[in-house]
Amino acid sequence: MTPENTSVLLIYTGGTIGMIENPETGALENFNLEQLQKHVPELQKFAFRIDTYQFDPPMDSSDMDPEAWRRLVRIISDNYQQYTGFVILHGTDTMAFTASALSFMLEGLNKPVILTGSQLPIGVLRTDGKENLLTSIEIATACHSNGRPIVPEVCIFFENHLMRGNRTTKINAENFNAFRSYNYPVLASAGIHIKYNNVQIHPHGIRRELKPHFLLDTNIAILKLFPGIQENVVRSLFATEGLKAVVLETYGSGNAPRKPWFVQLLSDASRRGIVIVNVTQCSSGTVEMERYETGYQLISAGVVSGYDITTESAVAKLMFLLGHDYEPAKVRELMKRPLAGEITV
Ligand code: ASP
């Protein structure tokens, strides 16, 4: 691929990377893409076209929602043919959720979509934003000698590591090394050279076509277990009107209390069609409900294994599957199958 037919669409949604300190209050406030670009004159050194699209006003990623995800899918699908790759500047707080959602919503993706951001604003001397932005652009345009993109999938690039988007979690509110992919190897490491881990990257499909999805159903909840959890709390959660699915954050390899009221509430909810997905509270490893008696009873209560999925990815995948209006049995079935490399079965 020559510089003349290489191009990137840089989508700025907001986040710390594009913030500046208000001298009066000391709080970080958004500024626009033009100001952001001024702080990165290096952008002009790229020999190819970089077009931009800005969310106006920019969003702190705590405000991200399915509406904003749909907007991103719309921007990418409308501009899909014109660009070699896409870079999304995004706040770090919910970046893993957005990356997970996009990985399902952009079915058949065959081009790089790289999300990045920073822990320090781009105008600050020690910012990590410049490096993250410049390397993301490089990755979004990287091609094999046959002209095919090296990374045709949704990723997060942060502090020298390229990770599959739907495998990531924000793990640090302080360090530059803020994201981790515990259950899947990094797709690339950036040092003097960018070293791609080609065997772990989704292969490029010659005839694959983008099929954007826009329908998401948000009638879901996360239930994190802790010793002493009360029956009335769990009962009222499962009695929520319209509730269709619950991400059950369990202990270790997928274990939960054996208390009869608890198991009964889960069985009743499953019977009423609520999909319950077992996701471990551990950062690393997988759910194995057959391993202990405490997990085994969850199988009888209709709970499905989330294997090694992250909570972020389970939330996005459930919204995506429920958005298709599938029967609960089909949602349960599809939760057990990898759709975008989000689980290892
Ligand atoms: N609150 C910011 C956001 O997620 C934090 C960040 O960008 O790092 O938008």
SSE arrangement:
Elements (H helix, E strand, L loop, with lengths): L6 E6 L6 E3 L6 E3 L2 H6 L10 E6 L11 H13 L6 E5 L5 H11 E2 L5 E4 L12 H12 L13 E5 L2 E4 L4 E2 L8 E2 L7 E3 L3 E3 L14 E2 L7 E5 L6 H8 L6 E6 L9 H12 L3 E6 L12 H8 L3 E2 L5 H12 L5 H8 L10
Parallel strand pairs: 1-4, 1-5, 5-7, 7-8, 15-16, 16-17, 17-18
Antiparallel strand pairs: 2-3, 6-14, 8-9, 9-12, 10-11, 12-13
Helix pairs in contact: 2-3, 3-8, 5-6, 8-9
The structure holds aspartic acid (ASP).
Key attributes of the depicted protein:
single chain, about 350 residues, 18 strands, about 20% strand, eight-stranded mixed β-sheet, four-stranded parallel β-sheet, alpha/beta, binds aspartic acid
